[in-house]
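Dear colleague,

Thank you for sharing your sequence with our group. We've completed the structure prediction you requested, and as agreed, I am returning the results in plain text so they can be pasted directly into your records. Please verify that the sequence below matches your submission; if there's any discrepancy, let me know and we will rerun it promptly.
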Amino acid sequence: MSNTSPRAPMRVVEKRITLSRRGFLKGGGMAALGVGALSTATLMTPAREALAANFKVLGAATGKTLLVLARDIFPHDRISDRYYLQALEPLEAQAAKDDKLKALLTEGTAALDRLAKLRFKKAYADLAKETDRLSLLYVIEHGAFFQKVKGHLVTGFYDNKAVWPLFGYEGSSWEKGGYINRGFDDIDWLDGA
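Please find the predicted C-alpha cells below.
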C-alpha cells in the first residue's frame, strides 16, 4: 500500500530504527539466555541499596523488597530500577497519610521476607534466583498486599512517560491525527515472515 499524504516527522523516527521487530524477537531469545545467566538481584544490588534509601516513610528494608517485588511482577531487564522507584514513590506518599496502607506494605514485605527465610534462608530481596522469588509470589499472589502493589504498578509504572521510549512507544497519537497517516500501514517489520 502506498500513502500519498506527506509523512509526519514521527515517520522519520520510525525509519531510524535499524532492528526489525522480527530481528528483535529472534535475538531476544539469545539475549534472554545471556541475561538469565546473571541474576538481576546480583547485577543491581548496589544501585538498589541506594534507591531503597529513598523510602523514608516505609524504610530502606521495605523499599528494597518493594523494588525487587516490582521488578518481579513486571520484569523488564533493560529498564533501570529508578523507573520502578518512580512508580513506587506515590505509593509511599500515600502510606505517609494512610496508616492502614503503611501497615499493609510494611507487614506484607515482612511476611514475604519471613516466607523467603523459611524456604530459602534469605530475605526475599536477597534471593539471587528469580525462580525462587517467583515461587514465593505464587503463594501470596491472591493476598491484599500483592494485589495492592500490583494494582498500583500497572498505572504507576506504565503511565510513566519517561519509560515509554524504552518500550518504543511514542505516546498518544489522536491529537496528531491518529495513526492512519503516521505508520498504521507500515508493515515492513513483517518482511521475511
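Summary note from our side: The radius of gyration is 20 Å.

Kind regards,
the structure core
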